[in-house]
Amino acid sequence: MSYKTWDEISLEQKVAARLLKNHISLHRLNHAYIFEGVKGTRKSEIAEFFTKAILCKHLDESLNPCHECDHCQRIDSGSHPNVFIVKPDGQMIKKEQIKSLIEEFSKTSLESGPRVNIIYEADKFNLSSANSLLKTMEEPGEDIYQIMITENVQALLPTIKSRGEVIHFKELDRGIIREKLQSIGIDASYANPISQYTSDISAAVEIANDELMIEIIDLVIDVYEAMSDPKKSVIITFLENGGKVIADQSRTEFFLDLMIIFQKDIIQSKLKNDHICFYSHHFLIESLSKKIDLNTAKDHLEKLLELSMRIKYNINKILAFNELLMVLERGYKNATQSRRNPI
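User: That's the sequence. What structure does it adopt?
Assistant: C-alpha cells below.
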C-alpha cells in the first residue's frame, strides 16, 4: 500500500505532506528529519515516498515521483546505491552500524545525485551509537540527507533532536481506516469495529483478512445476543466457540477490546448518543440498554476493563471469563426479571 502522490499522503497526514512537499518545491531540504508518531501512522511509507521525491529525475508538475524510472524502481527493490537503511541489530542500533554508515558517506558515491539514509526505530540508539550519529549530523556533507523514524521521540538525545527537523505524524482518522477496509470488500459490520480497535491501517487490513479474527467479532455479537435472550446461557455461548479466544493472547485481547467497545455502545445508547461503533447491531444495543440502569452499565464496563488489564498476566483465562460473563449475564437478566416481578 505504497503512496503514489502527495495528495494521497495529504488525506492521512496533511501537515506532514505540506511541509515535506514545500521543502522539495523550494529546494530547501534539511539534512536531517525526524519522523515521529504512534504506530500505524505510515511513517516508513512516507519516508520511502519522500526519498523517491528527492532522487527521482522525472517529478511531475505536482512534484510526485514517477515510480517508473530507474531511481524509483531501485528504491522500491531496496537496491539503490545512494539509499542506506539502518535497522536495530537485535534490541539496539549499535555503534558499528553507524560507523559503517559514516564510512559509506565518506566514500565517493558510485552514482551521482543525493544520498539518503533512513534509520528505522531511531529511539533504539545506545549512547555510543547516538554520539557517533551526531558526527554525521554536525558535518552531513553535500547532498546527504537523513530520515529517522521513531514512535518515541522523547528517547532521542536532545542534541539529535535539535539538529533534525521533527515532523509529527498524527494518528490516522478511524473513518479513513473504515473506508479503506470497505474499499477492499470488507462489510461495514466488520470494518467499523476493526477501525475502532486499531489506528494502524496495515494491522486493520491484516485483521480483516483473518477468518479467526472475523469469527471473534461474531462471537462478541453472539455473547451479547445471549445476554438479551432469557433462553440462552452466556457462558455456554462463549464456551462453545471461545477456544479460539483463549488459545492466543492477541485474540484474547482483541475479544476483550471489542467487548469493551460494545459495552461502551450500550452506555452511549442509554445516553441517547447515536455515535456507536456496532451500528449494524443498533437494535440489539438499544434492547440491552433498556434492560439495565446507567450505573450497572458502567459497572460492567469497569469489570471488562479490569479483566483486560489482568489478562496480560498469567491467570486462569477460562475461570476469569466465566466469572466476568456471569456478572454481565446476571446484570442484564436479573434486572429484567426484577422489573417483571417487583417485590
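The mean pLDDT is 90.
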